[in-house]
Task: structure prediction
Amino acid sequence: MAAISRETLLEWYRQMVLIRQFETQCDILYKEKKITGVYLHLYSGHEATGVGAVATLRPTDHVITAYRDHGIALARGMHPNVAMAEMMGKRTGCSGGKGGSMHLAQRDLNFWGGYAIVAGHLPLAAGIALESRYNGKDDVVLCFIGDGATNNGYFHEALNLSGVWDLPVVWLIENNGYGMGTPVEVASAQPELVKRAIGYGMKEGPRVDGQDVIAVYEAVSEAVDYARQHGPVLLESLTYRYKGHGVSDRSYDKMAELRDWQQRDPILILQRKLVEMFPDVEPELAQIERDVAKVVHDSVIFAEDSPVPTYEDLIRHVYVED
Amino acid sequence: MADKMLPMREALRMALREEMLRDERVFVMGEEVGAWQGTHRVTRGLMDEFGARRVRDTPISEMVIAGAAVGAAMAGLRPVAEMMTINFAFLAVDAIVNHAAKIHYMFNGQFRVPLVIRAASGWGDQATATHSHAPEPIFAHFPGLYVGCPATPRDAKGMLKAAIRDDNPVLFTESIALYGKPGPVPEDEDFVLPIGRSDVKREGRHVTIVTYARGVEWSLAAADQLAKEGIECEVIDLRWLRPLDMTLVYESFKKTNRCVVVEESLPRFSFGSEIAALIQDEMFDYMDAPVKRVSAMDVPLPYAREIELMALPNAQKVVDAVKEVL
Ligand SMILES: Cc1ncc(C[n+]2csc(CCOP(=O)(O)OP(=O)(O)O)c2C)c(N)n1
Ligand SMILES: [Mg+2]
Result:
C-alpha cells in the first residue's frame, strides 16, 4: 500500500477531532436539555473506525449504518450545522427535524442514513448494492454493523443473500464489546464475529485494531477493492464506546476498562504517529483543534437559531407528493 | 382493444410483463418466482422471457426479501417483491412497517421507496391456522404505505400497474381463492386504474354493502339472492384500504341509509370497525340502522372442513346481515 500523505493524515485527524468534539458537545447539550428525547448514542471512542473506513470510498459509493450515526455522517462529509440542527429537532436539520439523532441521512453524499431497528439496515444495504450490480456499476456499499446486531435474524438473511447474489457490500462489524449491557461473549456463541463469514461462503476480512485509523483504512481498502471486483466481505473492527450505550446508560461502572481503552485512544494514536513522522506538525494539530472547536461552536449557534418544524412539516412526506 | 377472458393470475402476469417491458428498472424477486414458475403461477414464464437478472429467485428469507427490496427501491430500482403468502409477511413486518413505510417521512423526503410487495392472501382449502390470514387491515394501519386488494381480474391488472408505476411503497394482496377465477381483462398496455379509487360493483337503493377483495364475491352473490326478494343492494368495492376512498360509500349511504360491511378477516380492530366508525362520524344524520359487520369468526382457523367453513364469512351470512339492517 502506498504511503498515506501528510495531508490525508491531517484530514483524518481533523475528522476524528471533529467527531470527538461534536459528541462531547452533544453530551453537554443533552445535560442542558437542549438536545432532548431518550436516545443519544455517542460515537466517542469509535472515531478511527468510522473515519478510516469511510476514507476508503469514492463519492459514488454508499454508506449506511445504525443509530450510532453521528460520527459516520460527519466522516462522510455532512456539515456539522445540519447534523447539530437535527439533534435539536430543528427544521434545518438534515432530516428536517423529523429523524433525530438516530436518523441522520444525506442523499447527495450517498449516506443512506442511520437506522434504529437493530440490524434493520442490513437488508437495505443489500438492496442498494443490488442496484449497483443490476445497473452494471462498480459502486460498493459500506455497511456498519454493531456486534450486537450480528445476533439478529436480519444479519443472517442479509449476509446470505449478499453471498448468493455476489453483492458488492463491505460488512464492517464495529465490535465495541457490548450490545447495550450484554458483552459479546455472553451474546454470541462464536465471539470471534468475523468467523461467521465462513457460514456465508464469504471472504473473511481481518479483525482489525479499531483504534488505529491507518490499520482500519488499510483493511477496509482491501475489502472495498475485493467487493468492487468480486462480492461481499465481512470484517471486524475492535473498538470501544467511551460514553456507554447511550444517554440512558446509567450502569456505566466500567471505569477501569474505560481507562485501559483510553490508553489507546484513537486520536492519541494518530497524534503520536503524526508527530513521529513529521516532527514539525504539532502547531498544525493545535490549529486543527482550534478550528474544529469553532466549527462545533458555530453548529450549536446555527442549530439554536434555527426554527422548529411546523404543522406543514408534520403532515408532509407521509407519501411522495408529485 | 378488446377485452380478454383471463383468470386473475394471468391478469396479474400480464401487468407484470407489460411493466417489465415498459421500464427496465422493474424487476421481480421472491421465493420460487423464477425457475419454479411462481408458487401461484403468477410469474410463470417470466424468467424464460426476462432472465435471472430481472426475475430473481431468493432464499427463504422474508426479512431480507422485503428489506433488500426497500434498499433497491431507495437506490432507484422498482422492485416487485413477492411474499409466497401473506402469512410469511409477518416475518417481514419490520421491513415493511418500519422501513418501507417510514423512510420517506423519517428522512424528510430525501429517499423514495417505489416498491410493490405482492402477497397471496386469505384462506384456502383447510390451510389451517398459520396459513389462513387475510391481514390487510393490519398493514393499512400504517401511514406511508398503500394497501391494494383487487377483487376482479380487470382490477388486478389495472391496480397492479398503478402500484408499480407509483413512487410510494404498496402492499398488494391477491386473494388465493380468486387466482383461478376468470373475468374480462383489457389488453391495452396503458390500462391503469388510479390508486385509491373505489368502485361500485353493483347498483342498488336499499342497502349499501362495503367490501373489498374476496368480500366482493360474497356480496354480489348475496345481492343476487336478495334481488329475488326485491331487496336491491349497492355493492361498493373499496379496492384500496389505503388510501381509503369513502366518497362512493357516503354517496350511496345518503341514498340507502343502511350499511353492511363484509370482510374476509377477523372482526376485532378490523376493516369493519373502521368503516362503521367512519360512517357514524360522517353520516350520522343519514343513519336508519346500526352498521352490521360480516367477518370471519374470532378464532384461529381449524383444519376440519365443517368447522372451518362455519368460521368463515359467506354469501348467506351477508344475506342475513342485510336483512338485519332493513
Ligand atoms: C430489533 C431491535 N431490538 C432491540 C433494540 C434495542 N437496542 C437498541 S441498541 C441495542 C444494542 C445494539 O448493540 P450493538 O449492535 O452492539 O451496537 P452498539 O450500540 O454497540 O453500537 C439494543 C438491544 C432495537 N433498537 N432493535
Ligand atoms: Mg456494540
Q: What stands out?
A: The pocket of thiamine diphosphate (ligand 1) is lined by residues A 41, 68, 116-118, 146-149, 176, 178-180, 245 (CB under 6 Å).
